[in-house]
Amino acid sequence: MAEAGKNPDGLAAHDWAGEAGTRWLAQLDRFESMIEPIGKALLDQAAYTAGETVVDIGCGGGWTTRQIAAMVGDTGFALGLDISADLVATASDRASRAGLANIRFDQGDAATVMPAEAPFDRLFSRFGLMFFPQPYPAFENLRRMLREGGRLDIALWAPIANNPWQRSIMGIIKEHIDLPKPEPRAPGPFAMGEQDYVIDLLQSAGFSDITFDAWTGDQRVGGPGSDPESAASFVLDGMHIGDLVRPGGAEVRASIYRSLVDLFERNRDADGVRMGAKAWLVSAKA
Questions:
Q1: How far apart are CA 44 and CA 33, in angstroms?
Q2: Nearest one of 238, 139, 243, 247 to 198, comparing CA atoms
């Protein structure tokens, strides 16, 4: 059985400025379509109104930022912030082609950067906050981006035990690769699954009135319409999981690919591969 390095459940924050960001860009539309239902739910929760200024942290290709810009209208403003220069360039291009004038995208690390327009009325992030190497000072910086009385709305993955789509995939990986015991709260997709931890991060940074709503639904692996084969390729080529598999060589990858195809075949319907997922929709007051 092959061996993998430490921190099997995620990537360090700096990786998004390089290879991870490039990989996300190459699969951008598939990633966006996978998590769009959660993004829509968080936008519904935020309920932006005309004239508000909003910073979107970890904006990726800018889909959520464009929705926010439309909600706040010409008298408002939406800034998309991402650590990947490639994603920022793509997001800027897509906003320009959409004809949006009240939007801008900046490249920067949200843990330390302070946008020129700060403080904002609102802060939004769909899965953009789980990769900070030092989350406590990072959340303090997020608080400084908001005016007094401003509001934060963020989506975070619930624990991996509550996410069958990821738990099942990782179970297959573990059948072929020796994975070290995950480090609790290490930077990665499920770093902020514990509600008590998130509450402590927010309260330590100066936030109050913290609420959690649970989003539960289907994760369309590889995006709606993916067949088992394309979904398996997406997992291995587009997601961070590919970093765990790659050192094992071609034979290990082929075995994992076949197992993933079998898993996805058992979890498909007329609209593609469907597996259960759970996320937290968190709101707090600055």
A1: 17
A2: 139
Query: Which residue type, as a one-letter code, is found at position 61?
Result: G
- pLDDT tens sequence across 79-109: 999 999 999 999 999 999 999 999 999 999 9
Q: Which tokens sit at 247?
A: 């050192």
Angstrom distance (rounded) from CA 255 to CA 215? 33
Placement of tokens 């960001």 in the chain: 21
Cβ pair 21, 240 in contact under 8 A: no
- At residue 27, φ and ψ (nearest 5 deg) are -115, 25
Phi, psi for 245 (deg, rounded to 5): -85, -35
Please tell me the least confidently modeled range out of 220-224, 235-239, 266-270.
235-239
Whether this model's pTM surpasses 0.90 = yes
The arithmetic mean of pLDDT across residues 16-30, rounded, is 72
C-alpha dihedral sign at 61, 211, 163, 217: negative
What pLDDT does residue 184 have? 87
Report the sign of the C-alpha dihedral through residues 266, 223, 216, 256, in that order: positive
Residues 67-92: b if buried by 16+ CB within 10 A, e if exposed: bbbebbeeebbbbbbbbbebbbebbb
The rounded distance, in Å, linking the Cα atoms of 73 and 224 is 30
Residue with tokens 């010409």: 74
Residue 240 is predicted with a pLDDT of 82
CATH superfamily of 2-285: Vaccinia Virus protein VP39 (3.40.50.150)
Between 2 and 242, the more confident residue is 242
